[in-house]
Structure formats: C-alpha cells, structure tokens
C-alpha cells in the first residue's frame, strides 16, 4: 500500500530507513559486489528501457523518479531488503493480465519482475556514481540500415522468367514448394495494365486491337504507349499525393481554403510525365529554391513541405509566445519532419517527439535536430515567376527595403531617446485618440429598404431572436453616410412604430406595440440613440414599421444602422437569429439586412477629443523642432524617399503566379508573421511538452550507422539546412531512400509491397518477403537513371506481373496470403478509378489537364469558416466532369461518395488504402445522384450511336468490361431495360463486380 508523504509516521519511517541504508552502504559486505553487478547489468537497463521515459527527474510522473539512487529511495516506493513491502512491486506485477505500470504498455515479464524483486531483496544496492538515462536503441543491425549491394540474379530452372524480377520470384517459389500461375489472357492483361498505368478503362477498340495483334512485341508496345500517355502522370500522382497528405484545405477547426495548392499537384503530375530523375524530384521538394535558384520547379516542389494539415487558429489567432501558439508551431514542424522522413525514408521519426524512439536508433535530439532544419519555414502563398530574373530582382529589392527600414528605425530610436518619456507619451496619446476619432467618424451602414415613389408607403424590417427572451429596451440607431454629403440620420423614418411578438410566424394578430410615432413627424435623431423602454416577456420577434418615409431626392426610403435588443437577463444574451424585411436593396458592403444586427453603428463626434488631439499635435511638433538636427532631418527624408521608391519598384514587378508552399517571406496576417529566413531556436521538449523545454538543439540529419555524425553546422542559413538534408536524402549510399521508393512502386502494382509497411522500415514494421529482389530493384533504379517509367516497364513486363489470378489449393495451403506471388492479386478499383471510369464510359469525361480543382460541393462562407455542402451540388455540372485527380480535396468534410469507396484520408499519410466491401458501397453506386446522372448520360450516349436495344446493351458491356455479352445476360438485361428503361439498366451495370474489380 502506498503511504501518504504528508503522514508524520511516514516521514519518520523514511528517515529511519535512509539512516539504515546509509549505514549499510558504508559497511562493505561479501554480497555488495554481486548486488552492484546485478544492478548495473540487469536492473539499470530494465529501468532505463521500461520506466525512465516517465519517471525521471524532469517528469516525475506519479510523483516519483527512478533516475538516481537518492531520488528512487526518497519517495518511499522501495523498501531495501523487503520486496513484499515495496510499493514498486505492487505497481509492476500484473493482475489479470494488466499492471498499473508501465502505463499504456505491455506489463513486465515474470523474469523482469523477478529481477526487480531479487534486487530489492538483496538490499536495493545502487552505485552512488550511477545515474540512469533513458534507454537509447543504438543497434543499427537491422535490415533497412544495411548498405545496399546489388545481389546476383538467381539461376533458376524453366522458361518462365522474362526479366530478372522473375528469377528472384521464382527462386522463392521453388524454395517454398510453390508453383506459379499460368499467364493471363490478353483481355485481362490490357485491362490490368491500362488501369495500373493510367487509371482509366481501355476502349473496346483498344482491346480488340491488342487481342488481335500478331506482333510478338504487342505487349511491350502497349506498355510504351501507356507510359507515354499524359494520363500516366495523373494516375501515379494520386499515389504520391496520398502519401504526402495533399489537400486543398488546411484542416483543423476552420479548414480554410488553399486556393493555390493545386500548382504543387500539377508539378507532381508533370514531373512524372517528364520522367524526372528521382534524386532531382526529391531535392526540388526539400530545397528546390536553394539548389535550383530561378527554376520554377524549385519553388513548386516545396509544396510537399506545406502539403499536410495546418492550424489556422493556432497560427493566426494565437501569438507565437502563447502556449497554444507554441503548440501549434511545434505540431506544424512535426508534420513537416514526419512527412519528409515517412515519405522518403520510411522511418517513424515522429515516435521520438516525446521520448527516444523505443525501437529504432533515433533519439529526441535527432528528432528536434530535424525540426531545427525547418525552424524558419512556414506554410503560405509563395510567388513563382516565369522569368528567373524577376525573382532575383524581387529578392534584391526586398533586401534593400529592409536595409532602409532598419536605418530609419535607428534614426527614429535616436529621436525617441532625445525626446524622452514625454515624446513617447505624446505619440501614444495621439495614436489612441486618432483611433477613437476614426472609429467615431467612420461611416456606418445598415438596412436600406427598396426605393418608394410615395412618402406614405409602408416599409418594415424585423429581427428574429435566437430564443424567446424577456426584453427591457429596444434601441434604434440612425445611419451615417458621407457619400454625396448625405450625412447623419440618413433614411430615419418620419413616422413609425415598434412592435414585438411571441409568435415565430404570422403578420397579424400577434403583435404588441411598444412605441407608436405614427401620428406626428419624429425629429431626425441624427446619430443619437432612440431608446424605447419596455417590459415584455418571451419575445421572439421585434419589428419596426415605417409609415412615413424619409426623402432621398425625388423618392423615399427607410434606413437604420442598427436595431439593438436589450434583454432582461444578461445570461440570455445570444446572437440574433436573422433579419427579415418587406424589401431590401442588399448592396454589400454598405447595405444589407445582416448589417442591422452586426453590432456596429456610428456615434456623435466628440468635440473634446478633437481639441485634445490638436493640442497634443502642437506640442509634439514643438518638441520635435527642438531635438531634430538638420542632418537627421535630411537623412530621414532621404530614407523615407528611398523606402517609398523601393516599395513602388516592388509593386511594379509582375506579381507572378502563387503556390501554397514552404516559405520564409509572406505578408503577415495578425499573429502569423514570417521569419524572413531567421531560424527559430529549437529546444528539446521534455515529454514533448512546449512548457518544458530542455537544451537548444542544432540541426542534424539522422544517423544511418553507429559511427556516423549526423550533426549539421548550426551557422547554416535556413535554405542551406534544407539543401544539406536534400543532399543527404539522395546520397547514393543511403540505405533507406532507394529501398523505400522501389517498394512503393512495387506495392501499387501488386497490392502489397515487398515490405508490407511502406512507411515503416523500422523494427516495428514488416521485414521484406524478397530482400534480395528489393535490393536489386533499388540498385537498378538508383544506378539506371532513376527513371520511374523504366522501373514500371521492368515490373509490368515480367512474368510474375502477367500471371492470372486463378486460385490454386495446394499453393494456398502453403501461402494463403500470396505474399510470395504464386498468382496475381485481384483488386477493386480505387474510388478515383471508379468515378473516372463511369465518366469515361458514359461519354462525359473531360480530359482537360491541370489548373484549379473543381468543386463537388456548394461552398458557403469561404472567407471565415467554409461550409461544404455536397448534397446541394449538381453532378450534371460539366465543370466537374474532369478526372478525379483534379477535384478540390477537403480535409474536414471529405466527399461522402469517395469516402464510401475507401478514398484516402488527406489528414494523414496513406501509403496503402483500405479495401473494404460494404453494403453502403453498393447503395452508393445505385442511388448516388452522380450515378443517376451518369446512367442517364450513358443511356443517351448508347442510344445516340443507334442500333436496336440488344446492340446498345452489347456496346454497354464492351465499354464497361471490354468483352462481348453472354447470351443469357443479353436476354436478362434486355428484359430489364424493356421493363425499367435503359438508364436503369446502365445504373445496374455500374454495380457489376466485373466492372469495379480487376481480374
């Protein structure tokens, strides 16, 4: 039982134990040497590995530490010599398979508990010079860290193999006692290959041509044609964007739009179509601005660093010095680090944010050293120019502007010092009073009725409250408009009444009048508030009805700046639900019904305030005349002129296009301000908590061997730091990068990678099923020009890729999961492939490439908190009939139809998509409005081509599954179409398993 440290008996007991322990430790015994050896060899490593991440001197989780002898013994958890009385044993012994400690982890094994028990029983000897440190896995003896060497291609028996890939696969099959499947037929191959390489169905004409082609190189020619298609980049960019968390909104609470994220998406598509060498592709996305200055792709590639989620509130609305602001920026750098290292290296470095990595040889120092590389970087709009000289000129002018502003600041500081406290006080007062004056003088607008030809026309406007409320007062505020000298009180009615109602609807019989000024003209109050006292309970509506309108010129109108409702109980206060009116001109931003309850109205000018301003300005001018020297005045005027000229030059430069990317220069937005290239200091955060910083860390890459120093020069600029990271990633001897990328390509062709965990090559990930093939592919790719298209060609021309998916019971008994590829894996088409195929076969697909993403929703409130209404969108809108890669991807509210079909979650890296089978998918493919519209289009397309119904059904099957229809299907489908119509048959055909599945 744990004792209460506040208990007096406990304190006395602890003091006695410490005295006894001190005496015992001072008297050597025969067992001391053995006990210390037990602690050093077994107990200390165990405590470091399983306990110290929470129970060190910094954290002291649960109120105790195990970092030193003094700390461990003083907390009363250990009774030297008496294991049964030691509370530490109570915490670590599992009861019903669960122990209190370690928390959220597997319990200690029986052997580990016995080691702790034996140590305590022997006196809990702890060498005084030994202080524990959290365990660090420093063992690089793991397959992924080993150097990549090109294995010899195995010698195999039989004619099956077409490429070296087959030799490695066949060797494993023979070793496991497995046989390979027969080759797939040509129709199956062209469907498989076309979807794999371009993500679209082959046309019936293409299938017929390939099936009947006698050329022995027909398959190879097909591969080359598909790889040369511009649709290739569109297909394979989707895989890449899944991994790097690309989306067109920021995520988090407000999920702001990123209208210029799409240039990065187009950059990825174009880079793949151009078959850009992988090292160049990597370097552009990490440090393209530094390594390839003046080149467009050097800017566009930086969209990768900015691709993930971003907390608008934490960055813009919260200062960086506040805890929430620090948390937001720490998480932002974490996303950058994890995105880069997961994507390129397949390592889970983010596991070291709160403690040393539990399984891989990476420490917190390594993790925060990577954060330091990105410490000056933020995500924002960044210009990229077609002319490289423009960007260079822009940077030069920005540097000159900063120099001039810094020099002017020195002069201003000198004037401040000479003027003393009075100068500071005057400037502060003038700024404050000027702001107050501007607020008071600012024209305020509100509700404005439609224009009436007769003055005695009736107009009304009302507010509907959020809930029934007890009212004490209604206040009317007149408008002020400086346009054409209109002035204050514009549009205030000459005669009017104010009424309230407890009913939510109905214009008659439910109103109570609280003010009636309809019998004589009401004097124009200008900007004075018109307060109407009342005592009415449970009011839901307040209406002002004008019966004699204010004259405008030759016509008449009714206008109010604000209708203010004062409630009896402040706790009832809430927003007004909405505003209704007989009519309204609705001319934003000046006039609109919503302005009537926006909390803004003009107030009368304060004459005393103007007097104070005039006096303070006069005193300021006199004070400045005494302290400014002619030289200082001349220098200040010169700098002011230079600043204005430099700003003018900057504004005159072509603006260029914009991309949402990593940047250090951008217009500040409230608390979100650029670093201008100055790295933020990065501290190791104990337990990952921003409120518990440790020592400042220098930038580093990751160690790949025990004898390597990953440290970078702390004096490097922010872009140079990223450049060093980019060079490190693309080193020829990098054991992770080259294995990672070929494994990803393999996985997208076969469904499972040679390593089944493509984002984790560490000890918690899977081991390769074909390690020699993995390394051979890595060497072939790295040393053969780093061509993705060559890698695809090598894989898809192999015999293993060209197998059928036929089941084989003996093989399945040995390898039920088909990890050794004795047949090809069947797969369902992805959500994008299904949507694009439906568009294609219905004749609706628009193949226009690139540009801003199209919406599949109705967008409301884009400037504040965007709302995405998918149910309001019309799927017949032809602007949305482009390939799915070009759709506008929303993080917080993903497309329901695409999500049902297992589309990737853009808020997290998705190296492998789920493939589920649910009834909701069938219902969506039957009933979603997109499918209904496309079924109509498909039917019209078939009918427009002419022929009898049977001919139309035949063409439908050819378009969907690229084969002739079976005779029994023909009759069933014809009967169905005759009874329910061809569109309903097309809707049914979209649900064919043969359509949505390959093989």
Write the SSE topology.
Blueprint: H1 8-26, H2 32-50, H3 69-74, H4 87-92, H5 110-121, H6 164-176, H7 186-198, H8 204-211, H9 218-227, H10 230-244, H11 262-273, H12 278-291, H13 296-300, H14 312-317, H15 323-345, H16 364-373, E1 378-384, H17 388-441, E2 447-448, E3 459-477, E4 479-481, E5 487-490, E6 495-501, E7 511-517, E8 530-548, E9 550-551, E10 556-557, E11 559-560, E12 562-567, E13 576-581, H18 607-627, H19 630-652, E14 657-663, E15 683-685, E16 693-696, H20 718-729, H21 737-750, H22 771-783, H23 788-796, H24 809-814, E17 827-828, H25 831-841, E18 858-860, E19 867-869, H26 896-900, H27 919-927, H28 929-944, H29 949-961, H30 967-980, H31 982-989, H32 993-996, E20 997-998
């Amino acid at each position: 039982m744990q004792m209460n440290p506040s208990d007096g008996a406990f304190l006395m007991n602890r003091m006695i134990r410490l005295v006894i322990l001190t005496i015992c430790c001072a008297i050597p015994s025969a067992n001391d040497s053995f006990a210390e050896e037990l602690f050093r060899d077994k107990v200390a490593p165990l405590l470091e590995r399983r306990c110290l991440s929470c129970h060190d001197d910094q954290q002291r989780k649960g109120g105790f530490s195990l970092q030193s002898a003094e700390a461990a013994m003083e907390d009363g958890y250990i009774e030297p010599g008496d294991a049964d009385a030691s509370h530490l044993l109570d915490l670590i012994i599992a009861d019903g398979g669960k122990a209190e400690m370690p928390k959220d982890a597997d319990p200690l094994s029986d052997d580990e508990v016995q080691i702790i028990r034996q140590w305590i029983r022997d006196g809990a000897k702890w060498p005084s010079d030994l202080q524990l440190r959290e365990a660090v896995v420093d063992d690089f003896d793991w397959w992924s860290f080993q150097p990549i060497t090109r294995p010899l291609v195995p010698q195999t028996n039989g004619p099956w193999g077409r490429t070296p890939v087959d030799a490695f696969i066949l060797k494993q099959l023979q070793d496991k006692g497995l046989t390979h499947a027969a080759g797939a037929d040509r129709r199956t191959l062209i469907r498989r290959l076309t979807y794999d390489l371009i993500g679209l169905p082959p046309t019936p004409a293409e299938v017929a041509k390939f099936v009947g082609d006698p050329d022995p190189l027909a398959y190879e020619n097909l591969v080359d044609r598909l790889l040369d298609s511009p649709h290739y980049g569109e297909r394979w960019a989707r895989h890449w964007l899944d991994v790097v968390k690309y989306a067109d909104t920021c995520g988090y609470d407000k999920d702001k739009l990123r209208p210029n994220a799409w240039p990065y998406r187009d950059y990825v598509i174009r880079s793949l179509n151009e078959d850009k060498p992988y090292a160049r592709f990597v370097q552009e996305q990490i440090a393209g601005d530094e390594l390839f200055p003046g080149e467009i792709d050097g800017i566009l590639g930086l969209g990768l660093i900015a691709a993930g989620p971003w907390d608008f509130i934490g960055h813009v609305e919260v200062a960086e010095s506040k805890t929430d602001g620090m948390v937001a920026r720490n998480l932002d750098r974490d996303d950058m680090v994890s995105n880069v290292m997961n994507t390129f290296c397949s390592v889970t470095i983010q596991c070291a944010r709160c403690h040393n990595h539990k399984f891989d040889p990476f420490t917190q120092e390594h993790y925060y050293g990577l954060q330091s590389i990105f410490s000056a970087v933020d995500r924002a709009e960044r210009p990229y120019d077609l002319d490289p000289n423009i960007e260079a000129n822009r940077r030069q002018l920005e540097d000159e502007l900063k120099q001039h502003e810094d020099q002017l600041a020195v002069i201003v500081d000198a004037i401040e010092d000479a003027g003393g406290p009075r100068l500071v006080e005057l400037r502060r007062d003038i700024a404050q009073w000027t702001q107050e004056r501007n607020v008071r003088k600012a024209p305020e607008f509100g509700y404005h009725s439609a224009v009436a030809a007769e003055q005695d026309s009736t107009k009304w406007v009302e507010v509907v409250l959020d809930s029934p409320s007890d009212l004490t007062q209604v206040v009317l505020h007149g408008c002020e408009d400086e346009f054409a000298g209109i002035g204050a009180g514009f549009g205030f009615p000459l005669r009017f009444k104010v009424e309230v109602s407890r009913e939510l609807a109905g214009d008659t019989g439910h109103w109570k009048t609280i003010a009636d000024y309809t019998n004589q003209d009401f004097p124009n109050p200008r900007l004075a508030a018109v307060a109407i006292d009342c005592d009415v309970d449970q009011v839901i509506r307040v209406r002002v009805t004008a019966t004699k309108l204010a004259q405008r010129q030759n016509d008449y109108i009714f206008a109010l700046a604000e209708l203010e409702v004062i409630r009896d109980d402040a706790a009832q206060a809430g927003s007004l639900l909405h505003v209704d009116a007989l009519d309204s001109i609705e001319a934003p931003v000046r006039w609109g019904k919503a302005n009537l309850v926006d909390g803004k109205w003009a107030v009368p000018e304060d004459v005393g305030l103007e007097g104070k301003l005039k006096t303070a300005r006069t005193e300021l001018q006199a004070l400045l005349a005494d302290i400014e020297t002619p030289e200082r005045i001349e220098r200040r005027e010169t700098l002011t002129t230079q600043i204005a000229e430099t700003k003018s030059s900057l504004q005159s430069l072509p603006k260029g296009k914009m991309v949402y990317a990593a940047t250090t220069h951008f217009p500040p937005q409230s608390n979100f301000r650029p670093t201008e290239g100055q790295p933020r200091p990065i501290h190791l955060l104990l337990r990952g908590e921003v409120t518990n910083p440790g020592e400042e860390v220098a930038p580093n890459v990751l160690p790949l061997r025990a004898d390597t120093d990953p440290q970078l020069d702390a004096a490097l600029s922010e872009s140079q730091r990223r450049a060093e990271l980019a060079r490190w990633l693309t080193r020829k001897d990098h054991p992770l990068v080259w294995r990672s990328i070929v494994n990803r390509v393999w996985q997208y062709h076969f469904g499972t990678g040679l390593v089944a965990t493509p984002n984790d090559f560490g000890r918690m990930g899977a081991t390769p099923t074909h390690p020699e093939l993995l390394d051979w592919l890595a060497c072939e790719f790295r040393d053969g020009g780093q061509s993705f298209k060559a890698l695809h060609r090598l894989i898809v021309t192999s015999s293993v890729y060209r197998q059928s998916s036929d089941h084989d019971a003996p093989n399945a008994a040995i390898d039920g999961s088909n990890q050794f590829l004795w047949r090809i894996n069947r797969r369902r088409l992805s959500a994008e492939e299904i949507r694009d195929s439906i568009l294609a076969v219905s004749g609706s697909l628009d193949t226009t490439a690139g540009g801003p993403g199209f919406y599949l929703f109705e967008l409301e409130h884009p400037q504040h908190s965007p709302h995405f209404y998918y149910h309001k969108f019309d799927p017949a809108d032809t602007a949305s009939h482009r390939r799915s890669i070009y759709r506008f991807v929303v993080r917080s509210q993903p497309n329901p139809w695409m999500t049902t079909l297992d589309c990737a979650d853009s808020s997290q890296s998705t190296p492998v998509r789920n493939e589920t089978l649910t009834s909701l998918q069938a219902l969506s493919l039957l009933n979603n409005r997109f499918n209904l519209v496309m079924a109509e289009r498909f039917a019209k397309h078939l009918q427009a081509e002419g022929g009898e119904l049977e001919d139309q059904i035949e063409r439908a099957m050819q378009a969907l599954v690229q084969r002739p229809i079976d005779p029994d299907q023909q009759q069933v489908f014809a009967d169905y179409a005759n009874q329910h119509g061809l569109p309903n048959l097309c809707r049914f055909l979209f649900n064919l398993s043969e359509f949505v599945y390959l093989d």
